[in-house]
Each structure stands twice: as structure tokens, then as C-alpha cells.
């Protein structure tokens, strides 16, 4: 580690970033400091986000769009203001292209249900073996319902999308290509722009699961070339309960509604209803108002620091962690072992110790990691393992925390007598 | 300290060399149980003679706690009447759900008392219960299956 330590350099002032996240300085049972390496699961929240939510509830709370009073106007302005902030954050050309959902699973289900609803037998949907279950199961469901066929990209031994048969997979029968931008299990960053061009060349739509990308990469959906992009609030230092679906406006405007109810309608008669234009068409019922306000504060926070700096920090930390993990005997990294095109999550196997036991032993040292299949069982099957341990990083992760992980893994090996 | 109370030597011994592994023939019922949240899996076969558990064998992938618990469960239940096995399960469940406030009964639980520390780790309780849930399911099915076979046989006799 000594060599790597001397080369670690981040554009972020970690001390001042960490001061914004009170939870990072709390003590765990036994007086242990927290080493939080589970941000791909859920990120921690800065004071600014929590305060925005508190301020909303304590001073401006009312329902949106339908309350004819001052508080209603303030709540509406705050909610719609969050839409503007999110649109700017991801480079959406039009604020009406931002649909608030409850999380990215709902966003992907919305897409599968509305876009996928017009699929016919013979049509094909293309996903990949490295998808999160939320970008597999909705497509399996819609293919079952419509008779369309689900196809998928394999994964190479070094954890990249296997593009050797791309022109076979994306063909004239393909209607939808839906891929993760950054793998939550392997950390792989996929070449979305190139694949979107391939999809468009055959007239298919490109859907992107950006749950792990939006937190750590500068995103411009207009330049990405995709048609629909989803992400979730709680992974971008925002609250739980709010997700985002971005879609090209003309595409959104051509889609049928998803959930029916209040606020998504134009005129309701007992004989039938007409629907509001996007985004309201897809936001039935009272939306996650305070959560959207919190998300607005979250993207402001990230923009204030600078997504380019966050991406550079993430890259440096991943490189440092890969170096460190490679020094642990008996440890096998799943997926890419080089920092190039590697997002902020690393999954690994430790010879002779089950991941749950790894996680429990690390937990007793204050180190929080995830163990299991990380909602990506197929990619674990691809690598012939039942589960793995995953460490994931964010803008507040320090090199000292990586060292604590590496030391902790040495302790795990000696505790289970595999050292 | 806490770690040693979770990973007692008995548990690690069972984990390294689990008892009754390798799926045996003959058997009455085979079940496959999974813990969807973590991916642990167990395939378990049970054989009954009347109301007595004559055989349990299993193959599993999972953590030390789940593998050791399945091993200990097999030791505890094989050769016992089903009702006694179920009563032992109740005792074990009480221990697991006791958050460390239940004094384990060594007379009943034998090596199972080593799992007392698991109750302090709420995320791991489901690991200790996976093998038990597979055994209970397999046994319930075996009882129902044997009962209906007996009924069919009796019907065969009365028809003859």
C-alpha cells in the first residue's frame, strides 16, 4: 500500500466534504468509527439536503398543483423548482422531460409497461447479463405478456459487455435496448453512446439504467444519445422515495399513461378520460414532494462540488482500492481489475470465507460493506459464484477507509484461519 | 469479543466438516429452499418411518452460520419423533428471536446452544433458520404424502 498511498491524489477537500455528512463522524457500538463502504447501495446525506427537507415540511408543506392557497403555491414552486434543478443537472433540454417516480425500479417498470406495451410476438428486447434485477424482471414480465423475445449481451471474463455478437443481437427485430450504464455489481462502465447509435440504426429505442452513473459521472442526456434514462434519488445524496425518469419529450408525449389517478388527467367523464401531457401524465396521485425538494438540494450540492471533480475522486479511490485489494492473498475481483472505465463499486471473493461472514467480521470493525448477489444474481452465476462481497465508494470516501478495508480483510482471513 | 460469541468454535467445526451432507437415497421428499435476500440455498432430503425421522441429508451453499445450523439441526432431529423435532425447532426459534435475552436449554439444543450469539446479529438470524425451514417443509410434505399413500393402500385393501 505504501506505493499506492504516495500516488493517491483527489481534487476534493475530503475533510470539508465529510464535515457536510454528520453520520460519517458518528460512533458505532463499542466506540468504533464508521467506515461506510456501501454507497452503491445507498449514499449518505449531507446536512444541506436534510435541512431542505426539514425546511419544506416545517414552513411550506401543502399539496402541489391543486391547493389554491399560499402554501400550495410555495409547495408547487418548490416541487417544480426541483424539476428544473434535475433537468439542468442531467442536461435535459426541456424541464417537461423530467418525470418524478418513487425510485428507479418504478421508472423502469413505467418504461417497460408503456413502451413495452406495444411489443408483438417476433419483436425483440435486448438487455445484458450484468443488469440489476430491476432492469431484467420488468422486461421478462412484458415479454411474457406480449409474446416478444428477450435477448441479452453476455459478459466477458474481465467483466465487460461481450460485444462480439452486437450486430446479431441488435437487429431489425429489436425494438428496445435497455442497458445499465455503470454495473452495480462489477463496476463496469458501458459504452452507452455507441450502443445507442447501434440501437437507433435499427430503429430501436435505447433505455439506460443510470442508477450508478448519475451519482458519479457528469451526465448530459442530450449528448448521450439515449431515449430514456432512469436514476434514483437516494444514491445521489438525496432522500429515499424519489426517482427520476428522463425521456425525449416527443417520445414521452407518444406514450400511454402508466398509473391512473389524480393529476395525470385532462378531463374525466364516466364514459372515459383524456390524459395530461408529460410529465403530469406519469405522475398520478400526490407525488413525493418533500423528497423531490430534497433531491433538488442534493443535485445542487453535487453541482456545487462539481461532478467532474467527483468523477476524478471516484476514479482515484477505485484505483487505490484495486491496488489495495490485489495485495490480499486469496482475493479475486469480479469484473474489471483496472480503474479504466470502472465505476465506484468493486465486488470480490475471498477464498475459504463466505461473503456474509466477511461482511459480519468487517462490521464488527465498523466497516460497512454489502454481501450477497447485490440484486444481480445472473452476473454472479456468470462468474460461477453464489454471492460476493462489495465495497463501494463516493465523494466522501478516504484512502484511510480503503486501508481499513484491506487491513480488515487480513483480519478476516486470520479469524477464519485461511491465512 | 462479540465476534467470538457469534463464531463459536462449535459453529466453525460444523462449517468446516458439516454432518449428513451428500444427498442420500432412498428418501421421501426433497425440498430446495433459498434465502432470496442473500442467495443462500439448501437442498434437503428427508426420510420418515411412521412418525420418526430416520434420515436427513443436505447439500447447501451459504455462509458458515447457515451451513453449520443445517448440520446441527440434522444431528438434533435424526432418530427423533417428528413432534420432538418440531419442539426442538420451537426452542431454537425462541433462542434466535430472543435478542440475546434467552438462556439456551442445552438438554434440548445440544450443539445448537452455540448459536446463542447469532441472536445478537439480527441480519444473520435468517441464516441460522434456513435449514430448519427446509426440514419443516420437507417433513410436513412427507407426512402428507405418506398419509395419502396409506389411505390409498387401505382403499386398495378394502376394494380387494
UniProtKB/TrEMBL annotation, chain A:
GO molecular function, one term: cysteine desulfurase activity
Every Aminotransferase class V domain range: 35-405
Cofactor: pyridoxal 5'-phosphate
InterPro entries, sorted: Aminotrans_V_dom, Cys_dSase_SufS, Cysteine_dSase, PyrdxlP-dep_Trfase, PyrdxlP-dep_Trfase_major, PyrdxlP-dep_Trfase_small
CDD domains reported in the protein's UniProt record: SufS_like
Keywords in alphabetical order: Pyridoxal phosphate, Transferase
Class of enzymatic activity (EC top level): transferase
GO biological process, one term: cysteine metabolic process
This enzyme's EC code(s): 2.8.1.7
Catalytic activity: (sulfur carrier)-H + L-cysteine = (sulfur carrier)-SH + L-alanine
Family stated for the protein in its record: Belongs to the class-V pyridoxal-phosphate-dependent aminotransferase family. Csd subfamily.
Name by which UniProt lists this protein: cysteine desulfurase
Organism: Kribbella capetownensis
Automatic annotation (TrEMBL), chain B:
Highest taxon listed in the record's lineage: Bacteria
Residues spanning the signal sequence: none
Membrane-spanning parts: none
GO molecular function annotation: iron ion binding; iron-sulfur cluster binding
Cross-referenced SUPFAM superfamilies: SufE/NifU
Example of a GO biological process term: iron-sulfur cluster assembly
Gene3D superfamilies: 3.90.1010.10
The NIF system FeS cluster assembly NifU N-terminal domain, residue ranges: 7-127
UniProt name for this protein: SUF system NifU family Fe-S cluster assembly protein
